[in-house]
Amino acid sequence: MKYAGLLVMPAGFFLSIAAILLFPDPAPRAAFVLCGLAVEAMGLVVAVRGHMERRGEDRS
Amino acid sequence: MTQPAFTESVFVLTLALLLIAPLAIAGLALINTGLGRSRSAAQSLLGSLALVSVAVLVFALIGATITDGSSGTGHIFHLFGKPWNWAGTGPIFLADFASQPARAQLALLFQFLAVALAVLIPWGSGADRWRLAAAAASAAILSALIFPFVAHWAWGNGWLAQLGLNFSLGAGFLDPGGAASIHLLGGLSALAVVWIAGPRRGKFPKEGLSTAMPGHNAVYVLFGCFVALVGWLAFNMSGALLWLNAAPAALPVVAINTLLSAAAALAATFTVTQVRFGKPDASLCANGWLAGLVTSSACAAIVSPIAAIFTGAIAGIGIPLLVEVLELAVSIDDPSGAISVHAAGALWGLVAAGLFAPRSGQLTAQLIGIATLLGLFLPLIYLLFFVLDRFVPFRVDPDGERIGMDLHELGGGAYPEFVVHRDDSYR
After folding, report:
1. Inter-chain contact A33–B82, Cβ cutoff 8 Å?
2. Which of B77, B165, B367 to mutate to test the interface with A (most CBs of A within 10 A)?
3. Which residues of B touch A44 (CB under 8 A)?
4. Rounded to an integer, what distance in angstroms lies between the CA atom of residue A36 and that of residue B189?
């Protein structure tokens, strides 16, 4: 699960890059950059949860 | 990009500041050592020296070539009709370094100090269980493959720095004091190290809450905060001169903002810990102070003094809470708090720099810089460290962890005349 989360994160980066290439207007551009960051945050949360699950297994 | 002339007086001023900047490295090394255990203190400080040595040597041999944005046009590809400068074309092995322009020489000196500081950040997070050989190999990877690209993109006329020119996003990604290139990078590396090395033995017992493992010397930690302040002032002011082309007359505001940010952060952390625990917590207050300094790395040269106080105070409130959340809720054992202080502090500072900057589009440029470090470099660092761990194991063997890193790796302790008691936290 940790690896899945880490694999999702670059997608957020590419979304941010696509935003500045595809949207010349500031508002949609900023919105898509924020979407990219949200995808990265989601990937990070999944990676952290994966870490927590492994720690839980190590404890039990 | 054309840059204004670098007069002799500005050269001397920048050089003088850069000669003081290593105090930030010394302060961080002291803080890391104080927050670790007494039986790992010598390994921690010797390790700091070793990592700095590895980082500057590898950076001189490999990294400086990629980072250099002053000579040549850089490696550029075109996408959607826009140039994307992704690597520098500096001379290999610092050839003809002395004949380069004064600004380029000082820029490289700044980057040498920056990479030395960046590799120390994960060292504190891996305290008491991260083998020195593995840490040195990690420092080599960071100095050769990761830091040079981030530094070139942010400082060396790379594509992040040119977001303003190519996409009308403010002045491009701004990172005058190294919040992204040093602290965010170091904090993300710390997260990767903690994930791979795992927690210290006994930190998270099978039953109950995590075990408190306080640092062994609060004096080192708090004195390190003072030492770091001097270095930070130098980093922020020299960064403003080099990367923002600030006039010397603008430097007092940069210094005052740095101080205000740290002071506001400490006041906030002091209050938060006083309210939560009944008494102020020394190590968390040190973390708060440092978080204020990290935030200032992004903001001090850009925002007003009142904004510097605000950003510092927010960092001071958020960081101790995040330290607690990471340990208690997420099971991350980070003895120095580097992930909260350096990664989260830098993230907030970079966002704040965009929020309070006068130019439109600056916030978007800052967010793209953050997205690059978080989305591209965190997975890359984790992957590289994960592969490295297969060849040079990160974690010391259980016996080494039991007797302490000093005896295990150096054969002698930092305090040979002290009696070292059995660690009661082992269960």
Report:
1. no
2. B367
3. 374, 378
4. 21
Put simply, whether B427 touches A (Cβ < 8 Å) is: no
Nearest one of B6, B113, B120, B4 to B60, comparing CA atoms:
B113
* Inter-residue contact B369 to B172 (CB < 8 Å): no
Distance from CA of B372 to the nearest CA of A (A): 6
Domain ranges of chain B: 8-410
Two structure tokens written together for B24: 């930030």
CB atoms < 10 A from the CB of A31, how many?
14
Residue type, B213: M
Helix (H) or strand (E) holding B76: strand B75-79
- Say if CB B66 and CB B108 are below 8 A apart: no
Decide if A45 touches B, using CB distance below 8 A.
no
| pLDDT tens-digit profile, chain B (427 residues) | 456 667 899 999 999 999 999 999 999 999 999 999 999 999 999 999 999 999 999 999 999 999 987 766 789 999 988 899 999 988 888 888 888 889 999 999 999 999 999 999 999 999 999 999 999 999 999 999 999 999 999 998 899 999 999 999 999 999 999 999 999 999 999 999 999 999 999 888 877 788 889 999 999 999 999 999 999 999 999 999 999 999 999 999 999 999 999 999 999 999 999 999 999 999 999 999 999 999 999 999 999 999 999 999 999 999 989 999 999 988 899 999 999 999 999 999 999 999 998 888 999 999 999 999 999 999 999 999 999 999 999 999 999 999 999 999 999 888 887 765 555 544 4
CB A48 within 8 A of CB A6: no
Q: DSSP letter for B248, please.
A: G
Side chain identity, residue B340:
S
CB contact under 8 A, B371 and A20: no
Q: Which residue has the tokens 């400068």?
A: B85
Q: In terms of residues, how long is chain B?
A: 427
CB atoms B364 and A26 under 8 Å = yes
What DSSP letter does each residue of B80-101 carry, written as one string?
TTEEEEEE--PPGGGTTGGGS-
Write down the residue that tokens 């920056």 correspond to: B114
As its CATH architecture, domain B8-410 has: Orthogonal Bundle (1.10)
Closest CA to B157 of B55, B75, B79: B75
Q: Rounded to 5 degrees, what angle do the CA atoms A17, B84, B109 make?
A: 110
Cβ contact B39:B420 at 8 Å: yes
List chain A residues with CB under 8 Å of B364: 20, 26, 29-30, 33
